[in-house]
Amino acid sequence: MEIVHKFSDALFTGGEQTILSQCAKMISIALETNGALLSFLNGEEGIGRIRELEKRSDKEKFRISNAITTGAIAPNIIDKILALLDQQDNIINSMYNLAREIRRYKVKSARLEKTIINKLIDINGLAESALKALRDMYREDDLYKIRDLREIVEDFEEAGDEIKEALLDYAYSGKVNFKDFYHLMETAHRADDILDYCEDSSDTLMTIMSSIIS
Q1: Average pLDDT per run of 10 along the chain, which is 214 residues long?
Q2: For a surface tag, which of 84, 86, 103, 176 has the fewest beta carbons within 10 Å of its beta carbon?
């Protein structure tokens, strides 16, 4: 669903409104990718859809980056918007990288595989909530509400850290062989990257809004 904005004309130039509206579309792609990742984790579909969305994200990022140079954007926020684009694109890249790791290595223990998948589904749910909070940040024009939403994203990221730590604890428990250990390590960090980039995006968007208002 396309994001509808309420950015005040008093705060933004027409160019800034246009560019931020386009940046917000990356969150829509990320939410769609997260849904495709959930289907993948549940064994309902393959990795193809995630790859298609990752390519779409790259094209959108390239298009928006080019548009920034021709828009009426305040010079002090151009670098921040470019950083925001990178971070949002990295959310989607991290989802694709996680799916690739799951596809590449099959855990022999059905019990361990179920444990991993269940933890990843938990992180997927946190990512969906974090992305929706990011979407709401784009829809807001009240700086205090935007700050509250940024803190919500941070809370989801911290909850994801706890799941990551649980996976790492299991990896170091001595109950898994070397290949499973490596897979657990890679999976935990790749899943955590998704929420890390959500938090980075919320921080950067908050900085952009603060710069414009101040």
Answers
A1: 42 68 95 98 96 97 86 80 96 98 93 95 98 94 93 98 96 93 96 98 93 69
A2: 103
Question: Residues with Cβ < 8 Å from 142, sequence gap 6 or more?
Answer: none
- What would the two tokens of residue 102 be? 């799951």
Structural domains counted in the chain: 1
In which domain, by residue range, is 88 found? 14-213
3-state secondary structure of 13: coil
Would 179 be classed as within a structural domain? yes
Question: Quick check: 195 and 156 in contact, CB under 8 A?
Answer: yes
Question: Concatenated DSSP letters for 92-129?
Answer: HHHHHHHHHHHHH---S-HHHHHHHHHHHHHHHHHHHH
pTM for this prediction: 0.91
Question: Does some domain include residue 4?
Answer: no
CATH number of the domain where residue 88 is located: 1.20.58.220
